[in-house]
Amino acid sequence: MADITDIKAILYTEKSLSLQENGVIVVQTASGVSKNQLEAVFKEYFGFVPLKINSLKQDGKTKRFRGREGKRASFKKFYVKVPEGAKIDALSV
Hints:
Layout: E1 7-10, H1 14-20, E2 24-29, H2 35-46, E3 52-58, E4 62-65, E5 68-71, E6 75-81
C-alpha cells in the first residue's frame, strides 16, 4: 500500500508548468508505485480522485565525472489529470 511518502516531488519544469494550466500535474514517485496506489494516495490525502493517470519510467542518465562513469538514479513520473475545482495546497502560490 502506497502512502504520501512515496510521492518524492512535484516537478516544476517548463513543460510541467504549461501542463498545470490545463489541470495536469507531474509527480515524481518511488519506482514501485502503481497507478492504482497513486490514485488511492490522491483520494486519501488530497480528497479527490484523479480523472486520468499516465505513467512514465525514466531511466537514469549515464554521466562522466572526473573521468569516471556514473549513473543518475532512475525514477517514475506520473501525469495526473486533476478534476475541475480540486486544489492541492502545495501548488497554491
